[in-house]
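Quick one:
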Amino acid sequence: MRAFAVTALAASLMASPISAQAQALRTDQTEFRGLFKELVETNTTLSSGSCTLAAERMAARLKAAGLSDDQLTLYSTSDHPREGGLVAVWPGTSRTLRPILLIAHVDVVEAKREDWTRDPFTLFEEDGFFYARGTADDKAMAAVWVDTLIRFAKSGYHPRRTVKLALSCGEETNGAFNGIEWLAANRRELIDAEFALNEGGGGDSDGHDKVLSQQVQIGEKTFANFELEARNPGGHSSIPVRENAIYDLSRALVKIQDHEFPLEMTDVTRAYFAKAGAARHDALGDAMVALAANPQDKAAEAAVNADRGLHSNLRTTCVATTVTAGHARNALPQRATANVNCRIFPGHSIESIRDELAQVIADPSIGIAVLPPRRPSPPAPPLDPKVIAPMEKLVTRYFPGAPLIPAMSNGYTDATFLGAVGIPTYGVPGMWGSPDGDGVHGLNERISAKSLYTGRDFLFDLVKELAGK
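Output:
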């Protein structure tokens, strides 16, 4: 959360949603801002919003720009009528080159008005930032992709490759209806492509719009939840016994807490540690470079492990997230359960991690169940020069001196569903964030206006590069 002085806070409460003091924009940027505003101000939370409405509004804009009805497919299911999405297709000129696919989720994390400084579903522009839920995750990218096809249609530009766009719901809520998962399973032909561009990449900045580096996401961990369960006969609390479900479960969780999964590297993570480390120019950067050169360097590993993000990027991690136990305050517990959330390093199955947890706990009385939904574990996409080289060229043009660094995500995105059906998916560079995370998934989410507008131009050029050659 960004700190405000009292005077600044007072001014923000009186500000209009779109500040009159915003910098002068080109005509095309003004049109784009209107699109972005409409998308952001369409509530798409699972509890009270509608991704279907957002998709319909974006389809209307694409149709007004010149796309025909047969190039626009709105989809939803009877069980999830408000969680629909959109697929748009802009035809290319080549009959042999396969399409590229642009994806973005339009659903957002829940946001309560009473917790936020401003209405989370009204777009405010202040101090060089756009504030609202979804501004950074992921409606900026969704708006850019829609705007890209609008610009193609208005100018009559047809690249060699067909360009497809899929806007979807369900990425932010584990277990909800997921549009990309549904498309991959039910309408594969709509989204068939040689590769896809997605969220997950982007730039690191100093918080004042100086871009220090850009990343392209190549691969991600597998998400899995395990339920640990201890059961006992229970009884009256006035006559306790050693067999206690809470104590049994607690001992199992402490063993998981103390377990360190081994260090691992892929070609992508090795390249990340080498390039990102070299760009730091500090002791941690030196340790990252040393570890990339020699993963057996224990001193370098210890130094890198002090950073929790880097520590997690080197291994599978499992952590207890929720606990439920007992049925009455005056009774011995009959049942105790805990959720253990694991982010699994590529190359390991969910079952193999379950088996490792069982070995770590070493107590056959503790049940370990894999909870739904089960995410696929696709291989990481290749470091494909035809995809990466245009990104490097544009990063050099737009951000001189900033390296493009391949990176594996500790989290997961909708790329997991595309990779599982053979569509390699890359998280693109272009826009950038601040060191404090810009309130993504938290309070007062924001994106730098310069990041949004520059990222829009960068991604437009990137799509033309990748689709036009």
